Amino acid sequence: MIPLSSYLTIVLIAVLFSYTSSAVYSTSIHEDNFLQCLYTYSHNSNSSISKLVYTKTNSAYSSILQFSTQNLRFATHTTPKPLVIITPQEVSHIQTIIICSQNHGLQIRIRSGGHDFEGRSYVSKVPFVIIDLTNFREIIIDVENRSAWVQSGATIGELYYKISRKSRNLGFPAGACPTIGVGGHISGGGYGTVVRKFGLAADNVIDAHIIDVKGRFLDREAMGEDLFWAIRGGGGASFGVIISWKIKLVQVPSIVTVFNVPKTLEQNATKLVHKWQHVASKIDENMYIGVILQRVNSKSNSTTVQALFQSLFLGGVDKLIPLMQEKFPELGLVREDCIEMSWIESVLNLYGFPKGESHEVLLNRTQATKDIFKVKSDFVKVPISENGLEGIWPMFHEDGAKDAFMYLFPYGGIMDNISESEIPFPHRYGNLYQIQYSAHWHEVEKMKFNWIRKLYSYMEPFVSKSPRGAYINYRDLDIGVNNINGYTSYKQASVWGVKYFKNNFKRLANVKTRVDPLNFFRNEQSIPSRFTKRGK
Ligand SMILES: Cc1cc2nc3c(=O)[nH]c(=O)nc-3n(C[C@H](O)[C@H](O)[C@H](O)COP(=O)(O)OP(=O)(O)OC[C@H]3O[C@@H](n4cnc5c(N)ncnc54)[C@H](O)[C@@H]3O)c2cc1C
Ligand SMILES: *[C@@H]1O[C@H](CO)[C@@H](O)[C@H](O)[C@H]1NC(C)=O
Ligand SMILES: *[C@@H]1O[C@H](CO)[C@@H](O)[C@H](O)[C@H]1NC(C)=O
Ligand SMILES: *[C@@H]1O[C@H](CO)[C@@H](O)[C@H](O)[C@H]1NC(C)=O
Ligand SMILES: *[C@@H]1O[C@H](CO)[C@@H](O)[C@H](O)[C@H]1NC(C)=O
Ligand SMILES: *[C@@H]1O[C@H](CO)[C@@H](O)[C@H](O)[C@H]1NC(C)=O
Ligand SMILES: *[C@@H]1O[C@H](CO)[C@@H](O)[C@H](O)[C@H]1NC(C)=O
């Protein structure tokens, strides 16, 4: 689907020759030489690369950088900035950038939607270039074969929208926030409200196009099953630049049902959350019930904790009510709490768009609420006692909990049936739910990590152990030694590696060692090459 100019092979051989004979680890900054290299090797492309290159002197540099910077924690004047941002339009542009940055000692950061919680797609401590894939967002839907090719720079909102234009009965299992980039999301797994029925986004990938460290354009067959395995959940940025994914679309009913039922502590939230833990991962896989815990103002002008039970049922209300009466009567769900709608409307509803919002809002790549945040994650295998839950609530009254929340996300269903090694994402059988801890601020000066770290430490006895699991798409630089200058040993990296990937970390490192032995594609938490020497 993406044409590749044949001249390129010749160009690449020429460039690669200079690559092997140049100092890959040079620390000097060669911005001018890098640009010279780009212009030299891309003059044959259909569209000139020069219009797509933004250096610090370009008036659009800041707006391009900020556009997909989704965490304002990394938009301050002290945040290290890229020397150059490039928004390629053709595969050959990306091939050229990969080769030229190796030639001139620059690191690259690959950015699709920019939602990385730790800003790793647009921040680096060493001189770097951003490949921003905003122009790679073609989506081709094949209704008959229930599949689609989607380019990495598309957002999941764009994907959902395009699918819904073709069919009311097709959907895709991915995340909730429409501005998330397909590139990073699928690379790290990607889950959403239909994960119990259809699995992760990465479980539904059937082919992919990647450009590797040598600038080669590879599809599934050409990259081989090992690399194809690694890119489906092993985290973005370790193996190459993913250009596009071929995905399986899933069948959704014409009518789905949504409810949002808030319960405060005064309304028995503790008992309800306790019971929910026994229900949510066991109930019919057509049913998703998530819980959002946060501080709210209560009627008496003081604050309390609220558990918002949020649900999507793949079916009509007539089936939902009896199911809830049988499995979770304590919630007291009534018809009036429920709204029937199409699947695409449920995407809008569950993300919080007002009723009647036009579906085109899914095409808007600007997040409505950009702020400063820090996120951590956990997995729960044994229900937490009421006492254990009650120990959480006081923390929500502390200063640090203003605008903070905990999101409890049920697993089970098909997630219990997929083997831990099927793809790199290992958190399957036996996980009742996942927790996302999220702390938010509006001013950098107010930002303090104590609260979220204290909560995380309080939760330790209640969550998965040896390793304490974490989700790579909820990147957390607290959970192990990070790769600062690019050369962390396998042993150091395995501290966070086994939390994200359990036993799959070893295989990921083996794939990495084979496809990128010199560790060109790297960031603070990229998969290490075993070939890499320390101390460089
Ligand atoms: C508001 C918000 C809501 C979220 N909701 C959910 C949710 O419901 N479910 C869920 O699973 N996750 C969710 N996430 C997490 C999200 O899935 C991850 O942050 C994901 O990695 C973002 O992908 P991106 O392309 O937007 O990010 P980016 O920051 O562009 O990329 C993330 C990482 O992947 C690398 N990368 C990006 N594109 C490519 C590519 N084409 N080739 C190779 N490497 C690449 C980057 O270098 C970076 O390391 C949410 C995040 C935010 C900020
Ligand atoms: C580049 O030009 C060739 C020949 O005109 C064409 O076949 C190809 O589709 C073009 N590629 C892009 C990305 O526009
Ligand atoms: C659907 O897939 C089959 C088998 O892979 C293929 O032969 C057929 O051409 C595809 N149909 C379309 C419309 O692409
Ligand atoms: C809370 O639960 C108790 C029984 O466990 C019940 O008597 C009471 O009515 C409930 N309160 C609310 C507000 O639902
Ligand atoms: C509620 O709290 C605010 C600020 O804390 C205070 O100004 C206000 O008087 C209070 N109202 C009542 C009814 O107590
Ligand atoms: C996109 O969303 C942002 C944030 O909500 C808003 O400011 C902007 O006007 C929207 N753009 C369009 C074209 O609707
Ligand atoms: C999981 O496997 C069990 C046993 O094989 C089967 O009964 C169940 O339907 C499967 N669930 C899903 C969601 O595939």
UniProtKB/TrEMBL annotation:
Its cofactor is FAD. GO terms for biological process: cannabinoid biosynthetic process. Keywords: Disulfide bond, FAD, Flavoprotein, Glycoprotein, Signal. Residues 78-252 form the FAD-binding PCMH-type domain. InterPro entries: BBE (IPR012951), FAD-bd_PCMH (IPR016166), FAD-bd_PCMH-like_sf (IPR036318), FAD-bd_PCMH_sub1 (IPR016167), FAD-bd_PCMH_sub2 (IPR016169), Oxid_FAD_bind_N (IPR006094). Transmembrane segments: none annotated. Residues 1-22 form the signal peptide. The keyword Flavoprotein applies. GO terms for molecular function: FAD binding; oxidoreductase activity. Belongs to the oxygen-dependent FAD-linked oxidoreductase family. This is FAD-binding PCMH-type domain-containing protein. It comes from Pisum sativum (Garden pea).
